[in-house]
Every structure is written in structure tokens, then in C-alpha cells.
Amino acid sequence: MPRVSVICPTYNRGRELLHTLNSVRAQTFPDWELIVVSDASDDDTDDVAAEVAAEDRRVRLLRTERFGFPAGPVNVALRGIGGEYVAYLDHDDLWEPEHLATLVAVLDEGADWVAARSRKADARGRVTETLDPLTLCWHPEIQLMNPLFENSCALHRSELAEVVGGWRESGVGLEDWDLWLRLTDAGARCTTLLDRTVTLLHDPGTRQHSLPCAHEHEIARLPDPRAARAAYRALTHPRHFEAGYEAATADLLRWYGGLAERGELVFPRGWEGGAEALPEAVRRHVRAVAPVWSNLIIEPKDDHVALSMVLSTMTAEHARRYTDYFRSTMHSQMEFYEAVLPPGSVVR
What we know:
By secondary structure, the chain is an alpha/beta fold. The protein is built from twelve helices and 13 strands. The protein folds into two domains: 4-208, Spore Coat Polysaccharide Biosynthesis Protein SpsA, Chain A (Alpha-Beta Complex); 215-347, no CATH class. It has helices spanning 17-25, 45-55, 71-78, 99-108, 140-145, 158-163, 175-185, 225-236, 241-261, 278-288, 316-329, 331-340, and strands spanning 4-10, 32-38, 59-63, 85-88, 94-95, 113-121, 127-130, 154-157, 190-201, 215-222, 296-300, 305-311, 346-347. The N and C termini lie far apart (53 Å).
């Protein structure tokens, strides 16, 4: 039996799939099987995978009925894997040759699951972003509030998939964040690495950019649409950006700093400076990302109008947990909302 089972769900990727499959075949760690799971592709994707399987007996093609999302094909593949460890690879992502060797070494030390650093590149291969080291700091509370890493970056013990019931099947997407949270809730703990061994395709045409976001975090309640629009304009006005940045920075410094002080924060391997490096890393990260209030919506309810932030969570339960934690922990941002929103706003 191979030590690592790699599952690559695909749909109508065609010959572009070769780049992804060849990045697995180029691994310096040779003891793997690769299951290419075609979600009822109707182009030449299956032919491409079959060609590779004919050249390399470690590769096999598995065709499923049409699901329309990766979780279904992945669960079909999970039922037939033989590896001690399991990895996932999106059909448009690439691994560096040392990816599996690096992650397997960590699991061999006894870790439950491990994730490497990634970068994003456009369709022409131009690098657009490399994952901020701060986003690889790990803790169960951080996993609740942030996706942290995508499925192509992770490797976990195979039995963990069975423990949590596999991937949740839903057209909503966000399967990876949902899986990582359920692994965490089941008691699994993650080790992260600053080794950059994954390249993710960053393209507006990919599924990631078209997923429906069905849940939200309610920031404030307003009596009518006019008041809600006024609240929206106030919160998104550039004159408040600096105060918003400062509030987010204060919350992260208190949050991450407290976890580090209690010895609970898991720093990624390769992190330099320990807890003393956190303040600079937090300030740099907050300045680098878009304001958290940039994805706001106005939504009529039965007895009020809500000003809410869209959440990329798969389930309503996850969204509720997110909201509860935010309200109980992010005090500076809550105070910022109170100060900025106009009279009549009930901050939630």
C-alpha cells in the first residue's frame, strides 16, 4: 500500500490537467497513489488522465456521476484509498517537487495534520501573492474565524476523514474550511509550515470566485432602508478607514498576543522572533488586506433592516459561531461600529 493517497477532483480541465498531474509525478517522495476523480467530465479530461495512468501505475482514473462540486467525487475516492496519509490537490494547482516529502516528515513526527505555505499565480504563471506568514499561525479559535489555507496545501492522517464523516457535500462550496473546522472540533491539531510548496491558480474564472455566500454576520440593525443606507455610507467612507484599521489591529494584537502569552498559539515552522515578532506582523497584515467592512450587504428582515458582513462559511451553524466569537472578542471593532454608525443604529 502507498503511504500517501492523493485525491485530485476534476471537471472539464482538458490537457491543462497535465500540469497538475505532472507536479505530483515530479515529487521527490515517491510512495504515493494519485486518484484523479472525474466529476462526469464531458470533454477530453478523462482521456488525459487515462494517458497519464497508462504511463504511471501509481495513477488511476475514477469517474463518478455528476455532482457539480468537488466534495462528492472526493468522498467517492476516499472510500477506496489505501494510503496512511491523504492529500488533496485541486485540478488547477501545482506542487513543488518537495511538497509531499516536507509534509510527510511532519506527520511522521506525530502531527495530526499539516499545511504548507502557498502562493497565487495567474493563468500566465505570474505570481500575484504569497501567503502572509501571520495567516499560518494556528489555534482552534483562529481556525473558527479564518479559512487559513486551501485544500491543496494540506496532508492529514487518513483515519481523520472517517472520524469526521468525510467532506460535507454542498453546492455552497467552502468545503476545505468546513473540513478543517470539523477536524479541529474532533480534537485534531494542525502544524503549519512556512515552506512555500504550493502554487494556487488565481483567476476570476475559477469556481472560487463564483461561489454563493449564503450566510452573514450582522453588524447593526436599522429601522428602515434609508437608515441602513446611511449606516452603509458611514461605515465605508474613506475618512473612517484609518480608525477601522486601528480597531482591527488592536483586536488582533490582543487576540494573538493573548494566545501566545498562554502558550497556545502554534507558530508556523520557520517563524522567527516568536511572540515578539507578532506586533509588526499584525500591523503589516492589517495594512495589506482590504477593510473587513468592504463586503457589506443591506438585508431587509421581518422587523428591521440589517447591515451585515457576508461570510464565506458553508453552514449557518458555523456563521453563528463566528458571530458569537466576534461579538465576545473583537471589542475594538465593536466600539468602532458604535462610534461610526449614525444614531438609530443598534450595533449587534
